[in-house]
Amino acid sequence: MITAAQMRAARALAGIDQKTLAERAGVSLPTIQRMEASDGVVRGVVDTLMKVVQALDEAGVELIGENQTSERGGRGVRLKPVAPPNPQG
């Protein structure tokens, strides 16, 4: 599950606006706007939620769920670790 606050924070961390997220996720701009305007956990069609989460993942953002490890506990977002360059080329 993703919260509206996580979604807004993830998008900001990735440096993308609502329109760009909508395009990358293959959903409408009003859908993103509704999701981000909701209180608490985002509700909606599971397929749509998965598309948004996937788009954020591809933008380099990792969502931290309630039961996952985070510095202060609770939900959040962070940049995904960047793999070190392959010295083999």
Compact overview of the structure:
With about 90 residues, the protein is mainly α. It has helices spanning about 5-15, 20-25, 30-35, 45-60; strands at about 60-65, 75-80. It has a single domain, classed as 434 Repressor (Amino-terminal Domain) (Orthogonal Bundle), CATH 1.10.260.40.
Our count of helices gives 4
Order of helices and strands: HHHHEE
Structural class: mainly alpha
Number of strands: 2
Name given to the CATH homologous superfamily:
lambda repressor-like DNA-binding domains
Which segments are poorly predicted (pLDDT under 50) over 5 or more consecutive residues? none
Give the overall silhouette.
globular
What percentage of the residues does DSSP assign to strands (E)? 5-15%
Q: Tell me about the largest β-sheet.
A: 2 strands, antiparallel
CATH architecture group name:
Orthogonal Bundle
Q: Termini distance?
A: 38 Å
Fraction in helix: 40-55%
The strands making up the biggest β-sheet line up spatially as: 1-2
Notes on the protein architecture:
- The chain is built from 4 helices and 2 strands, in the order ααααββ.
- With about 90 residues, the chain is mainly α.
- It has one domain: lambda repressor-like DNA-binding domains (434 Repressor (Amino-terminal Domain)), CATH 1.10.260.
- Helix 2 packs across helix 3 (about 30-35) and helix 2 (about 20-25) crosses helix 4.
- The radius of gyration is 14 Å and the shape is globular.
- It starts with a helix and ends in a 10-residue tail after the last strand.
- The model has no long low-confidence stretch (mean pLDDT about 85).
